[in-house]
Amino acid sequence: MNNQCDVKIYALSTCSHCRDTKEFLNQCGIAYKSINVDELAPEERKKVLMELKELSPECAFPTIVIGDRVIVGLQKKEIKEVLGIK
C-alpha cells in the first residue's frame, strides 16, 4: 500500500493522541481525512459515532482507518506497515 490510499481519522479536537497522530501522518507525507467528532452538529455526531462503533466497539480515539484496516490509537509501527512506509 502506498501513501495515496484512503486514510480517515476519527478524532477529538481536545485529544493529544489525536493531534500526535495527525502530526505523525503529516511528517510521513500522508494525506488523510480527519473527523473531529466533538465538533460535529448533534445529528451528524450521532451518525458518525454509530459508524465509529462499527469499526471500533470501544469507540476510542483516535481511530484510524486505512483502506480496510482499523487501527486504534497512535500505533506508529502498525500505521507504517499498513502504509508501506519504512
Question: Can you tell me about this structure?
Answer:
- This protein is an alpha+beta fold.
- The chain has one domain: Glutaredoxin (3-Layer(aba) Sandwich).
- 40% of the residues lie in helices and 20% in strands.
- It has helices spanning 16-27, 42-55, 76-83, and strands at residues 7-11, 33-36, 63-66, 69-72.
- Strands 2-1-3-4 form a four-stranded mixed sheet, with helices on one face.
- It is globular and about 40 Å long.
- 19% of the residues are buried.
Key descriptive features of the protein:
single chain, 86 residues, alpha+beta, Glutaredoxin, 4-stranded mixed sheet, 3 helices, 40% helix, 20% strand, globular
Can you tell me the CATH topology? Glutaredoxin
Oligomerization category of the chains in this entry: single chain
User: Secondary-structure element order, as H and E?
Assistant: EHEHEEH
Query: Can you list the strand order of the major beta sheet?
Result: 2-1-3-4
Shape: globular
Largest sheet: 4 strands, mixed
Low-confidence stretches: none
Strand content: 15-25%
Number of domains: 1
Secondary structure layout plus pairing:
Layout: E1 7-11, H1 16-27, E2 33-36, H2 42-55, E3 63-66, E4 69-72, H3 76-83
Parallel strand pairs: 1-2
Antiparallel strand pairs: 1-3, 3-4
Concise synopsis of the structure shown:
The chain is built from three helices and four strands; from the N terminus they run βαβαββα. It is of the alpha+beta class and about 90 residues long.
